[in-house]
Amino acid sequence: MTKYIFVTGGVVSSLGKGLTCACIGLMLERRGLNVRLQKMDPYINVDPGTMSPYQHGEVYVLDDGAETDLDLGHYERFTNAPLNRDCNFTTGKIYSSVITKERKGEYKGRTVQVIPHITDEIKSCIRKLATPDVDVVITEVGGTVGDIEAMPFLEAIRQFNLDVGRNNCMYIHLTLVPYLKAAGECKTKPTQHSVGELRKIGIQPDVLICRTERELPKEEAEKIAQSCNVERRAVIEERDKEYTIYEVPLSLVNNKLDELVIERLAITNAKPLNMDDWKSMIDSMRAWDRDVNIAVVGKYVKHHDAYKSVYESLVHAGIANHCRVNIRKIEAEKVEAEGAEKALAGADAILVPGGFDKRGVLGKLEAIRFAREKKIPFFGICLGLQCAAIEFARNVLGLEEANSTEFNLTTPYPVVALLDDQKKVTQVGGTMRLGAYECRLADGSKAREAYGSEFIWERHRHRYEFNNDYRDVFSKAGLTISGTTPDSTLVEVLELADHPWFVGVQCHPEFKSKPTKAHPLFRAFVAAGLAYRAEKKTDHARHRAQSVISATFPS
Ligand code: GLN
After folding, report:
1. Ligand 1 mean position to 386 CA, how many Å?
2. How many angstroms does the Cα of residue 22 sit away from the middle of ligand 1?
3. Which residues, 6+ apart, have CB-to-CB distance to 55 below 8 Å?
4. Other C-beta atoms within 10 Å of 264: how many?
5. Chain segment 225-257, per-residue pLDDT in tens
6. What is the dihedral of CA 279, 280, 285, 288, to 10 degrees?
7. Which of 297, 342, 370, 491 could crosslink 466 through cysteines, CB 3.0-4.6 Å?
C-alpha cells in the first residue's frame, strides 16, 4: 500500500519547503523506495505560466508541457521520480475541474461546496499519484499555515489521515527558528504558534524541521518538542548551508530523518541507506581550486529565483568540470547603460537566458555583440537564441532594423516571428509551444559534439521562432543552423562558425540538468569558459613577459 507524506510550512514563506521535499524524496529513493512528488499551490491562477517571474520565480516546464512551480525543479534535480501535469495543482485548477463537473451535471443536483467537493477533488489529485508500484507520495502544500487560501488543502490532508489510517500517512512541518541578535537567543515562539495553528485545524505534525541560521541549542529543541507535542528526536535542525544546497540531504540524513519516516510509516521494504556518491560529490566540490566567471545577462536578475534552473545547471556544469562557477547576475539594462566592456568585465563566458517582452533586449544584443566580437564563449537560451539572430542580422548582415515581431510588429526584417498557428491563438494560458520536442543536430556542430548524439529531446516554452526565410543568408554569413526539428521545419540551434563556442538554442536545456548528471550543453559551455580563462591568463603572462623584455632590451 502507498504511504503519504504531507509537508507544510509555517511562520514565513521561502523556507525552502520544496528543497526539503526533494531531499526527503532523495533519501527515500536511496533507501530503495519508489517515490512520487507533488505540489499544491493555493493561488487562483490555473498554473504559474501566466505569472511574471517576479511573482514566484521561474516557471518550470515538464516533458508533457505542464508549466509548473519551480519547486518541481528541485524534485527533478534531486530524485528520479517522474513528473507530469498531475504533480502540480493550484486552487484555480481544482476549482476549474469542480466547476466543469458541476456544469456537466456530475453532482446530481447537490449543492457544490468546499467541503466535501473541493476537498474530495484535492484528495483525488493526491491519490492519482499512488499507482500500485509507488511506495511513498510526498505532497508539499504551498503557502504558509494560517493563510486563508491554504485552508481547503490543509483540510483535505487532515481528512487523509482518516481515509488511509494513521500508519499510512504522516505530517512534516517546516518552520523557522529565528536567532535574535539583541537577545543572543534562538526563538521558539513562532514555531509554537505555527504548530498551534496546525493543531487547531486538527493536524498534529509528526516531525518538525526547524530552519535556522545558527545551531539549534538542545534546550530550545527540547522546548519545541514539549510545547508542540512532538518527539524530541523528531525536532530536526535544518541549518543554512554555507557552501551548497546539495549538502542539505546529508544533514537531514545525519539527523536520521530517513529512519524516522520509515518507522513512522511502518515501511517494511526499505533497504540500507547509501549516500556514498552524494558524499563524494560534496567532498569534491569542497576541494575545487579553480574558478570560472559566468555572466548571466537577463531582465529578471533581481529576483533570486527567476533563472533558478539556469543557475543550478551552471553549478552542475561546475561539478562536471571540477571548478567553482561564479555566477555574475547582470541586469540587461545595465549593459545597455554602461556598455558591454564595462558591465561584462572579467566574464569568462556569457549566457543570455529566456525572457519575454522588449525591456532589456538592447542590453542583451550588446552583450551578444561583445561575446561574438571578442570570441568569448556564448550560450543563448530561447530568447537568448532569438537575440543572437537579431544581433547577427543587424551587425553582421547590416539589416539595421532587424527584429523579432514580439518587439516590433512592423520590422522590415522579421528574423524572428510567429508561426501561422500561433497567430490564431487568442488565450494566453498554456498556449505556447510547450514541452519536449525532438531535435536533430548537424554533424560536426558544437551541440552534436556536446551531446554525443544526433537526436535529442528538450523542453520548450516559447511562441516565436527563427524565420525560415533567413536560413540561407544566415548560414552563408557564418551563423549556421546546427539543429532543427527532425522534419527540418523549425530551427532549434544556431552556432557561429568562426568562434570558439557560440551556441543558441530555442529549447530550455536547464530543465534537464542534475548535480549528478550535468547537462551536456552547460558542461561544454563551462568548459569553453575555462578554456577562455586559461587563454586569457596565458595572453596576460605573455604580454607581461614581453613588456619586461622590451624594458630590459630596448631596441
Ligand atoms: N519571448 C520569446 C518567445 O515567446 C522567448 C520565450 C522564452 O525565452 N522562453 O518566443
Report:
1. 8
2. 28
3. 48
4. 20
5. 999 999 999 999 988 887 789 999 999 999 999
6. 150
7. 491
